[in-house]
């Protein structure tokens, strides 16, 4: 009987893709499951995150819980937290600790013990591969395709650049195209391009993200697929990039922007490469070709020195821009970052209150956006079914409850629908099959 290995993934879409790729390496010799947390597996691989202290807390909690449920199971920790503080994870009960480089050869470390994470792997390795999966994570409908790794920014609050590497590694255009072709042949309809910082795609091999997207658009324009981009920074949203995303039907009419704040004062303190005006220009560029183009973003409240004026600027911007969704965070000091040592740190209870206030404004912004698209005809890619209702997303990344009766609808298929109303709690919309 094969031993059972459970992959538990925290954090970003890049981690999900890498967990799937690691699972595929082990699948010939082990029974692979995902997110099994009840102590029933022989080996647990925790692909960790270190973007916030809350993420790290959940990882520590999971290790303690697994050790309590089954002291005989082996725990392998890998990912960003494993580079940030490998000793702590080892002390908590992780039998093997691997970093973001070592995870690429997880099959070599399966029977080892101890810490193997290299904090400076990008300096010690001239060239290393990007982990590209052959299937979606946990048999889901969308497949994540990593095309870039590393970040050379110097944002004062972030330590991920050190954990993912201060060197850019890109998947060559030809390999990206081949991977997409392979996914299409297998019948997958949605492919999500992901990376540490997609704006730096091609810096290492004289290619650019715009060139890649244009080539993808031309090559697959007649295919019934959807290409989604996980996250971009405002300063790279040029008019040309916007035109490309709007020109080809395969590209989702949605972009997730890594904004973090709207106050110029806070953005400068964060050492971001853009200001509020540039954010607005980026969104205007995207919506110039399609007024319904949807925007989701990351925003942080409680950054050191943030005052009522800064909050007002952020809240006004959220409301004005009619954002589809805000991924909101309380500022979390990260050890070793410049921001962690800044004066005027905001107390925890105040950050919590500001987050609650921002979430209310974000909900109103979402409602205003969704109200503006009622009556629109869109194409939904179905995912899950509950009786006579299917759940899925359209090309604007809006979640749908699709009502159907006579027509036969299967998971993983596109259907033309018309949006009829908002769903409960304004989390999405209700639509009918045309």
TrEMBL record:
Name of the protein described by the UniProt record: Radical SAM protein
UniProt source species: Petrotoga mexicana DSM 14811
Keywords in alphabetical order: 4Fe-4S, Iron, Iron-sulfur, Metal-binding, S-adenosyl-L-methionine, Transferase
Keyword NADP: no
InterPro entries: Elp3/MiaA/NifB-like_rSAM, Methylthiotransferase, Methylthiotransferase_CS, Methylthiotransferase_N, Methylthiotransferase_N_sf, MiaB-like_bact, rSAM, rSAM_horseshoe
SMART domains with a match to the protein in the record: Elp3
Cofactors, names only: [4Fe-4S] cluster
Segments forming domain Radical SAM core: 137-371
Protein's UniProt keywords contain Electron transport: no
Alphabetized GO MF terms: 4 iron, 4 sulfur cluster binding; metal ion binding; tRNA (N(6)-L-threonylcarbamoyladenosine(37)-C(2))-methylthiotransferase activity
UniProt domain MTTase N-terminal: residue ranges: 3-115
């Amino acid at each position: 009987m094969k031993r059972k290995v459970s992959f538990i993934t925290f954090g970003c879409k890049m981690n999900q893709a890498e967990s799937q790729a690691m699972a595929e390496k082990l699948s010939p010799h082990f029974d692979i499951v995902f997110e099994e947390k009840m102590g029933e597996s022989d080996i647990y691989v925790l692909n960790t995150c270190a973007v916030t202290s809350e993420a790290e807390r959940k990882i520590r909690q999971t290790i303690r819980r697994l050790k309590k449920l089954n002291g005989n199971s082996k725990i392998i920790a890998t990912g960003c937290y494993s580079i940030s503080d490998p000793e702590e994870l080892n002390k908590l009960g992780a039998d093997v600790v691997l970093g973001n480089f070592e995870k690429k050869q997880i099959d070599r470390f399966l029977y080892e013990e101890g810490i193997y994470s290299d904090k400076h792997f990008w300096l010690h390795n001239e060239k290393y591969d990007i982990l590209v999966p052959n299937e979606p994570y946990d048999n889901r409908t969308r497949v994540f395709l990593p095309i870039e790794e590393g970040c050379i920014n110097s944002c004062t609050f972030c330590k991920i650049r050190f954990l993912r590497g201060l060197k850019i590694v890109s998947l060559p255009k030809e390999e990206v195209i081949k991977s997409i072709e392979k996914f299409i042949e297998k019948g997958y309809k949605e492919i999500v391009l992901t990376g540490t910082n997609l704006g730096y795609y091609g810096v290492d091999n004289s290619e650019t993200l715009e060139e890649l997207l244009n080539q993808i658009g031309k090559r697959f324009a007649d295919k019934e697929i959807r290409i989604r981009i996980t996250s971009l920074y405002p300063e790279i949203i040029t008019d040309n990039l916007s035109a490309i995303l709007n020109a080809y039907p395969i590209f989702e009419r949605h972009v997730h922007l890594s904004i973090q704040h709207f106050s110029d004062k806070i953005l400068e303190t964060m050492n971001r490469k853009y200001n509020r005006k540039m954010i607005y220009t980026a969104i205007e560029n995207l919506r110039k070709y399609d007024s319904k183009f949807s925007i989701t973003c990351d925003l942080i409240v409680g950054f050191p020195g943030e005052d009522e004026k800064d909050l007002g600027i952020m809240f006004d911007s959220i409301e004005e821009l009619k954002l589809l969704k805000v991924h909101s965070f309380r500022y979390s000091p990260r050890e070793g970052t410049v921001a962690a040592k800044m004066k005027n740190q905001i107390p925890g209870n105040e950050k919590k209150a500001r987050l609650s206030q921002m979430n209310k404004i974000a909900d109103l912004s979402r409602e205003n956006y969704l109200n503006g698209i009622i009556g629109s005809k869109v194409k939904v890619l179905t995912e899950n079914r509950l009786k006579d209702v299917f759940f899925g997303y359209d090309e604007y990344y809006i979640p749908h409850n699709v009502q159907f009766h006579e027509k036969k609808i299967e998971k993983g298929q596109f259907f033309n629908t018309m949006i009829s109303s908002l769903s409960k709690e304004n989390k999405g919309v209700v639509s009918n099959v045309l």
